[in-house]
Design a protein that fits this description.
The structure holds two protein chains of two kinds.
Chain A: H1 2-21, H2 27-42, H3 48-71, H4 75-83, H5 90-97, E1 100-104, E2 106-107, E3 110-111, E4 116-127, E5 130-141, H6 157-173, E6 177-183, H7 195-206, E7 213-221, H8 222-226, E8 233-243, H9 247-255, H10 265-274, H11 279-285, E9 290-292, H12 304-325, H13 330-335, H14 338-343, H15 360-375, E10 383-384, H16 388-449, H17 458-465, E11 476-477, E12 480-481, E13 493-494, H18 499-502, E14 507-508, H19 509-515, H20 531-537, E15 545-546, E16 551-552, H21 562-573, E17 579-586, E18 589-596, H22 607-623, E19 627-631, H23 643-646, H24 648-661, E20 666-670, E21 673-675, H25 676-683, E22 688-692, E23 696-698, H26 702-709, H27 720-725, E24 731-733, H28 738-748
Chain B: H1 4-13, E1 16-22, E2 27-31, E3 39-40, E4 54-60, E5 63-68, E6 73-78, E7 86-87, E8 92-99, H2 102-113, E9 115-118, E10 123-127, H3 129-138, E11 144-145, E12 150-156, E13 159-164, E14 170-175, E15 182-183, E16 188-193, H4 198-211
Antiparallel strand pairs in B: 1-8, 2-4, 2-7, 3-6, 4-5, 6-8, 9-16, 10-12, 10-15, 11-14, 12-13, 14-16
Helix pairs in contact in B: 1-2, 2-4
Classes of the chains: A alpha/beta, B alpha+beta.
């Protein structure tokens, strides 16, 4: 019986190895198969002792060759490991790493989203003579060993909303959060709260979560992973992957395949290799803090030793995060240091007790440290052509602005406000007294003067009867736009796509792209326009001052053939990256603008774009300027930059969160097509997102939705009006009124701490 | 009064519709179809988002506009002589022979033979209790309707209003709404057929459903 079990286990191990290595021929696998077959044919003729001896030898051989095979694993093999049904799941971790847990809001398929699992868990241990119970909130995707209803760990928007809810609960209860990332990516669906917008909300809230947060990545698929992984300490399992897109998705984009077409496995493997998705790669780039070693060929359900390692690492990581911000820590911090661990002298984490309760000050410090941590990331992934001197000057300039703004708008204003308030109070008192005392005197005087007619000046009349004056010129100067699109120079007519349903007549291009600003005169359909149209017609003339123009997009992963493609984009557009940041004025109000430009590689966001965006946010914060993110178009995160791109999601969102918390006004204006990562982070988190009528806004494009969910979506699924109906954006503007509406927003929305307020 | 049998015979003799594709405005025509007999499809897909087969292009002021098939069928003929020439609006460019499906034939017959009583607004509809009882007992065809007769109850946001029937006298042939489901404004509620024609219409419809040969 025991022998049978051992044989069965070896057979399982062999079949697992075959699954992982796919169709590849491998002498080691063939050897294992041959030895196992040999044993199975010979075992009947052997005595029991011989059988046991042979079995032990066979098991040793398996162990030895598994180690050997482990060294041969390619990145795509690792992808197969994390997706294998035998891979350990979150429930296994809850069972074996924690001492006690209660699942919140779910029991198998009975859950708002079975792919997101929340549990209130305890770690109980004995330190000295004390028994310590430390509660944690465990959040993570559950793949359920291939259970169909778990969707492979692809979380729907409401699953992410539930995760956020319990992060806030943990914050209220002041207990640490442990998150486990087991997702190939988020489930692409726009229904409220919306895949992109919910991830953005999660990131925004996680940026300021005042409790220790440790995350572990096994399968880290892009936005879905980010939704629960903006943490103080990011650990990664050695056989996991963390990537901007699945290798299959990247290969489909590279091969430009159509829906339903298969991509060659070689290309998928090549993409997996080029995207640098493994734990070692991500550790080298600094996007994870530590790699937890798994058993050869990856941890599976019955690797009980691994759970012990994981438990140790989780306790240690949580302790380390807390000790960073705690006052009294000298020896304990030393005991947990990585230096000692490398020397093999580390103390068992279970033996070190650190209280997981934090004081209010320590919690603030924790958030600040988290911001600093992410701010420092991806600094070598873009090209900065500034000289050393320019960099130093830039740094000092930033400091000077910060001091100047603080003095002018905070220190002085604080006292000014007090005086002004006192003055107002005094005026009100005087007004009341004057009215009461003066009334009988005025009555007597009026009687003698025979009644004097009340006179009100014209100006006062206007201000009382008119709220605002209609300015029908908009951005037009002398009846003409300052900038005219080159499309308006073609002598031809254009047909409106709504012609069949709305009966629009053909429009003459010089009219349509000139005076009409790309808006159909019959139905109001907005044709897309160049970003230059906005630069010249929305902002005050001659007020644009670009900064950080020397930060350029590069090829941080050395992705094959990408240098040429970036160079080509630079040549074609005359830009250095897809993000242009500048200061400008609208109606004499200064503002900082970060613009994502569609013609530069689809407006995708990589390390350079992210860095420029973060710097623009910081500039707006230092100068107390409002911030406008004008999204001419963005196709998402630039996949060829791998995690260098995806890390911009938390980085930029954190910068925005800090800016908004400091009292800034962050406006987002979508124009053409805005999808994926940027919408699911620093754009989608704004409380003031508006759209020009021409926009399509969403998480994934129609092809990806069909591929993932199998559902056909209507052609107008991502149209701005649909986004408005779903509650994703706050309004839709006519292009011709963009300038007027931005001015209105600058004057009336958000931002208690702007220079002009 | 229409002759349903005659109509059916007519449809059987020519079980298709000829659809003329005409120039929507002036312009120079280029044909995409090369010869008659080509199978074409109209706009299709779950949301009719996939465009129909390209028949021709019409260029006016350097704006090439596609002219597409509106229904599925085969190209009966096209005006090859017009290729590369300037045409006026309304000029026939091609003809598509669209073979009728049994559903279309039934719809065509019922459209001619029935009076459809439409819903005045989006609401839930019920028959008044007496009519409902009668329908349950003896079937819908047993109910005779007259102009001005109390027939339906319109229920919207918990307010109920009675809805009198307006239209020619006859018997109820079909009921198009379901209990408890909202009906959009303008959608038919019931189809009324003149009393003496009822058995004939039923017979013809059944025959079409069972015997009509669908053309590939």
């Amino acid at each position: 019986m025991e022998l049978d079990n051992r044989i069965r286990k070896l057979q399982d191990r062999l079949s697992y190895i075959r699954d992982i290595f796919g169709d590849k021929e491998n002498a080691n696998i063939a050897l294992l198969q041959a030895r196992l077959d040999e044993f199975l044919t010979q075992e009947r003729g052997m005595s029991l002792a011989d059988q046991m001896r042979h079995m032990a030898q066979l098991e040793d051989l398996f162990l030895f060759l598994e180690k050997k095979l482990d060294a041969q694993l390619t990145p795509m093999d690792r992808v197969r490991i994390v997706r294998h049904p035998a891979r350990l799941c979150l429930k296994d971790i809850l069972e074996n790493v924690y001492d006690n847990y209660t699942e919140i809001g779910g029991q198998d398929e009975y859950s708002i989203d079975p792919s997101m699992l929340i549990a209130r868990a305890y770690i109980t241990r004995r330190v000295g003579k004390r028994v310590i119970n430390q509660p944690v909130m465990v959040i993570g995707q559950e793949k359920g060993h291939g259970q169909e209803f778990r969707n492979g760990g692809s979380v729907k928007p409401w699953g992410n909303a539930k995760a956020l809810h319990y992060m806030k609960v943990a914050e209220t209860e002041n207990i640490p959060i442990h998150s486990y990332v087991f997702t190939p990516g988020s489930y692409p669906i726009e229904d409220y709260p919306g895949a992109a917008q919910q991830i953005a909300k999660n990131l925004f809230e996680m940026a300021s979560l005042r409790v220790p947060f440790v995350s572990v990545i096994s399968e880290g698929g892009s936005g879905g992973a980010e939704a629960i992984a903006l943490s103080d300490m990011r650990l990664m399992l050695s056989h996991g992957y963390y990537s901007v897109i699945s290798p299959e998705g990247a290969a489909a984009i590279e091969a430009k395949t159509r829906q339903g077409e298969r991509v060659a496995p070689e290309l998928i493997a090549k993409c997996a290799r080029q995207l640098k998705i493994t734990a070692a790669d991500n550790l080298a780039m600094g996007y994870v803090d530590k790699v937890i070693d798994e058993p050869p060929l990856g941890a599976r359900v019955d690797h009980y030793d691994f759970y012990k390692t994981l438990r140790n690492e989780m306790i240690k990581a949580t302790n380390q995060v807390i000790l960073q911000v705690k006052g009294m820590k000298l020896f304990r911090s030393l005991a947990l240091s990585e230096r000692l661990a490398r020397k093999g002298q580390a103390v068992d984490a279970e033996e070190v007790f650190v209280s997981w309760n934090l004081s209010s000050k320590a919690r603030e410090n924790l958030v600040w440290k988290r911001h600093q941590k992410f701010r420092r990331l991806a600094q070598t992934a873009y090209m900065d052509t500034r000289t050393f001197g320019e960099k130093v000057v830039g740094r000092f300039q930033g400091l000077a602005w910060a001091m100047n703004s603080y003095f002018r708008y905070e220190f002085l204003r604080k006292h000014q406000r007090k005086i002004k308030r006192l003055q107002e109070e005094l005026e009100a008192e005087v007004h009341l007294v004057r009215n009461k005392v003066g009334k009988p005197i005025r009555a007597v005087m009026d009687k003698f003067a025979g009644g004097r007619p009340q006179t009100v000046s014209e100006e006062a009349k206007t201000s009382l009867t008119q709220l605002s004056k209609w300015d029908d010129k908009g951005g037009l100067s002398n009846g003409k736009w300052v900038y005219t699109s080159p499309k308006a120079k073609e002598d031809r007519t254009v047909t409106c796509p709504n012609a069949e349903t709305h009966g629009c007549l053909d429009l003459w291009a010089p009219d349509l792209f000139g005076e009409y600003a790309g808006v159909c005169g019959y139905c109001g359909h907005h044709f897309t326009m160049e970003y230059q149209w906005y630069l010249h017609n929305v902002f005050d003339q001659g007020s644009i001052f670009e900064f950080n123009g020397q930060i350029e997009s590069g090829n941080p992963l050395g992705y094959e053939g990408f240098d040429e493609r970036v160079a080509e984009a630079k040549k074609k557009t005359g830009l250095k990256s897809a993000c242009m940041t500048f200061e400008s004025r609208i109606e004499n109000l200064n503002l900082v603008v970060a613009m994502l430009v569609a013609p530069f590689r689809g407006g995708t966001v990589g390390a350079a774009e992210g860095e420029k965006f973060v710097r623009a946010v910081e500039r707006a914060r230092r100068k107390h300027y409002p911030l406008l993110a004008y999204v001419h178009g963005t196709a998402g995160i630039r996949i060829q930059e791998g995690t260098n791109g995806v890390i911009q999601m938390p980085r930029c969102t954190m910068a925005v969160q800090r800016y908004i918390a400091d009292g800034g006004l962050y406006l987002v204006l979508y124009d053409t097509n805005s999808y994926a990562g940027p919408v699911a982070s620093f754009l989608g988190c704004s409380p003031y997102q508006f759209s020009i009528r021409s926009a399509n806004i969403g998480f994934a494009g129609p092809g990806v939705i069909k591929e993932t969910t199998g559902v056909d979506i209507p052609p107008d699924y991502h149209q701005a009006h649909q986004a408005l109906s779903r509650g994703h954006i706050q309004g839709i503007w006519d292009r011709r009124e963009a300038r007027k509406n931005i001015t209105q927003a600058l004057l009336t929305m958000g931002g208690r701490n702007l220079y002009y307020r | 009064m229409i002759n349903v049998k005659e109509l059916l015979e007519e449809l059987k003799a020519s079980p298709y519709e000829l659809i003329d594709i005409v120039a929507p405005h002036t312009g120079v025509v280029e044909f995409a179809v090369k010869e008659p007999g080509l199978k074409v499809t109209g706009a299709h897909g779950a949301y009719r988002e996939k465009p129909g087969t390209l028949i021709a292009t019409l260029e006016r002021e350097r704006n090439k506009k596609p002219i597409r098939a509106t229904l599925t069928g085969v190209v009966e003929c096209f005006e090859a002589g017009l290729a590369g020439r300037f045409v006026e609006a309304g000029t026939k460019l091609a003809t598509i022979r669209h073979y009728l499906t049994s559903k279309e034939v039934v719809d065509l017959i019922l459209k001619k033979a029935l009076f459809l009583f439409p819903a005045p607004e989006r609401a839930k509809y019920y028959f008044i209790p007496e009519i409902d009882k009668k329908m349950r007992a003896s079937g819908k065809n047993a109910v005779e309707v007259r102009d001005g007769m109390e027939l339906l109850i319109m229920s919207r946001m918990k307010r109920e209003t009675s809805l009198p029937y307006k239209g020619p006298d006859g018997k109820i042939y079909a009921v198009y709404f379901k209990l408890g489901e909202n009906v959009d404004s303008g959608h038919p509620l019931i189809g009324v057929c003149p009393g003496d024609q009822l058995p004939l219409v039923q017979d013809v419809v059944n025959r079409v459903r069972s015997e009509w040969e669908e053309h590939e």
